[in-house]
Amino acid sequence: MNAVADNRLLPAWTDSVHDAQAAFRCVLAALSEPGLIQTLPMEIIGPAPLNAAMTALCLTLADFETPVWLDDRADMAAVESYLRFHCGCPLASDPATAAFAVVVDPEQGIALDRFAQGSIDYPDRSTTLLIQVPTLDSGPAHRLSGPGIESTRTLHAGGLPENFALLWQRNTARFPLGVDLVFCCGNAIVGLPRTTQIHV
Fold first, then answer.
1. Contact (CB, 8 A) for 131 and 190
2. What pLDDT does residue 3 have?
3. CATH code for position 164
4. In a domain, 32, yes or no
5. Helix, strand, or coil (residue 11)
6. Which member of 43, 105, 168, 180 has the greatest number of CB atoms within 10 A?
7. Domains of the chain: total
8. Using alpha carbons only, what angle is made at residue 179 by residues 59 and 193, rounded to the nearest 5 degrees?
9. Calpha distance 118→15 (Å, rounded)
10. What is the mean pLDDT of residues 118-125?
């Protein structure tokens, strides 16, 4: 479903408990099977420029304890109102303090080291980037390996900066620190946890 570009405060889930649980299972599957496309089993309309998958993930993951950072293209009044009303989440001005980051325009660059990296004692206290992309099946090929991948798997997310593979290699080099990514396209998602290697 397409985003709506007006000033209405759009509704959230049709069935809040069932839909949120189903979306959360998809996120877990995406991060446990990196590079594999997972289709969300519900439809939702979010405020422009958020697509359906990005909207669903925000509703599923964000709450009053998880600051959310918005990139310049997502930093719009309709998006802020939607997240504050439906998620109750604080909006972070500093990406290093965000639990989740909403990135709608990744081609402008994704400085992964700007975000919270976690710590040796608490590596989970890092930012998960939710990245909206135009395609998950026809973008440049990135060969993946690591936990959850039997041999190798190919990521075809489009709309990423040309140096994405290098940025990701720098991120995985910090393990167990680093960020995790979830790509959102239409009603589908793909996970890329920090345990996954990209081979150039």
1. no
2. 55
3. 3.40.50.11310
4. yes
5. coil
6. 168
7. 1
8. 80
9. 34
10. 96
Q: Residue 172 half-sphere exposure, CB side, CA atoms within 13 Å?
A: 18
Q: What percent of the chain has pLDDT over 70?
A: 96
Looking at the DSSP assignment, which residues form a beta bridge with residue 143? 154, 199
Q: What pLDDT is recorded for position 8?
A: 60
Residues 6 or more apart in contact with residue 148 via CB below 8 angstroms: 32, 33, 34, 193, 195, 196
- In angstroms, rounded to a whole number, what is the distance separating the alpha carbons of residues 175 and 123? 9
Q: pTM to 2 decimals?
A: 0.94
The range of the structural domain enclosing residue 79 comes to: 16-199
The answer to whether residue 6 sits within a structural domain is: no
* C-alpha distances out from residue 183 to 81, 119, 122, 146, 194, Å: 23, 24, 24, 18, 14
The rounded mean pLDDT for the chain is: 93
Q: In this structure, what token pair is assigned to residue 87?
A: 């998620």
Q: Using omega within 30 degrees of 0 as the cis cutoff, is the peptide bond preceding 34 cis?
A: no
E runs forming strands in the chain: 38-39, 68-70, 100-103, 128-132, 142-145, 153-155, 180-185, 188-192, 197-199
In a domain, 141, yes or no: yes
pLDDT at 2 over 70: no
HSE (CB half, 13 Å, CA atoms) of 127?
26
Domain presence at residue 1: no
φ, ψ of residue 97 in degrees (nearest 5): -105, 5
pLDDT at 110: 86
